[in-house]
C-alpha cells in the first residue's frame, strides 16, 4: 500500500496517522479534511513540505468532491477518521454528528465502491478501507469485565450512537458489495496535538492558567487510556494485516478513574510548572454529563495476537510526555484557546 487516503487527517488522531505514515514509514498520504473547528493544520506542519504529503480540503458528505479525489489520486487504501468526535457537543447538537458520522461514512463507502468498480481486477482486489471507531459503541461496563469484539452494541450518547450506526453501515457494505473493509474500536486516546476541549489537554491548560479543573460527577468514571502514537501504529498494522469484515479492539491496558487522571496531571504540574499552591486545590466537581457511561475497558487480545501490536506507552510515561508537550508547544494551543475554544462547559441540558 503505497498511497493512502486519510480522512480527518487534520484532527488529533488523523494527524498522528499522517505523521506516522509519512515520517516513519515513507508512505504517500492524501489528507482529506473539511477543516472544522477541531482541525488544525499546524498538527501536520512537520510533514507539510514532504513530497509524499498532499492535502485536499473536502467534506466527506460531498460525494462529487470525494469521487474527484479518488479519481485524481488513485489510492491503494483508505483510513476513515473524519468525524465529529466530542460527546459533550453531540449532547447539545446531534444533527451534524448524524450527518458527518453516518452519512459521511456512507458517502465514503459509495465513492470507494464506484472507484473499485473501475479499477483493474488485480488492484481492486487489494483495495482496503479501515473504519476508525470507538469502544463507546459498546455502552457502559460495570465495575468488572472487558469489551471484546463480540460485545453487543449499546451506545448511550448521540456521538456513540452515530459511530455505532457507521460501524453497521461498513459491515453491510462488506457483506452486500464485497468491499474489503475492517473496523477498529479503540479506547480514549491522549497525547500531543489533542484539541483542548477533551479532558486531558483541558485540565493541563486550565491548571497552567490557574483555572478550575472540572471533574464530572464524583470523578469515579473509568476510561482506558491509549497513547495516540501507539494507536496510529496499531491502525496502520490493522489496515495491512486485518481481515475484511472483522473488527479489532485497540486499548492501552491503562484503566484510570477520571479523578485519578486529573490528580496525576496536577502532581506533574506541581513538578513541571510549580505555583505557590498545589494544582489539586483547583479540582472542582461539576454536574455530571447526561448519560455518562460508568466504565470502558478493552480486551485487545485479538489485535495483540492476530495483528502483533501492543501498546508501548503506559499511562505514567505517556501522561508525563503529554504534559511536557503542552508546556513546550504554546504556539500550537494558544490560538485555539484564544480564538476557538476557551474551556467553557459544553453539553449541559437546560432544566
Ligand atoms: P478530531 O475531532 O480531533 O478530528 C476530526 C477531524 O475530522 C477534524 O480534522 C475535522 O476537521 C475532520 N472532519 C470533521 N467533519 C468532517 C467532514 N464532514 N468532512 C471531512 N472532515 C471532517 O477527532 P479524533 O479525536 O482525531 O478522532 C478521529 C476518529 O477516531 C473519529 O472517527 C473518532 O470517532 C475516532 N475515535 C476517537 C477517539 C479519541 O479518544 N479521540 C477514541 C475512539 C475513536
Number of helices: 12
Gross morphology: globular
Largest sheet geometry: 7 strands, parallel
- CATH topology assignment of the domain at 3-193 and 227-253 and 297-302: Rossmann fold
Report on the architecture of this protein:
- The protein has twelve helices and twelve strands.
- It is α/β, with parallel strands linked by helices.
- It has a domain at 3-193 and 227-253 and 297-302: NAD(P)-binding Rossmann-like Domain (Rossmann fold, 3-Layer(aba) Sandwich).
- It has a seven-stranded parallel beta sheet with strand order 3-2-1-4-5-6-10, sandwiched between helices. It has a three-stranded mixed beta sheet with strand order 7-9-11.
- The longest helix has 23 residues, at 95-117.
- The structure holds nicotinamide-adenine-dinucleotide.
Q: What is this structure, in a nutshell?
A:
With 351 residues, the chain is α/β, with parallel strands linked by helices.
What key attributes describe this structure?
Rossmann fold; 351 residues; three-stranded mixed β-sheet; binds nicotinamide-adenine-dinucleotide; single chain; alpha/beta; seven-stranded parallel β-sheet; 42% helix
How are the secondary structure elements laid out?
Layout: E1 3-7, H1 12-24, E2 28-33, E3 53-57, H2 63-73, E4 77-80, H3 87-92, H4 95-117, H5 121-124, E5 128-134, H6 158-177, E6 181-186, E7 188-190, H7 199-208, E8 213-216, E9 222-227, H8 228-241, E10 247-250, E11 255-257, H9 258-272, E12 283-286, H10 301-307, H11 315-328, H12 330-339
Parallel strand pairs: 1-2, 1-4, 2-3, 4-5, 5-6, 6-10, 7-9, 8-12
Antiparallel strand pairs: 9-11
Bound molecules: nicotinamide-adenine-dinucleotide.
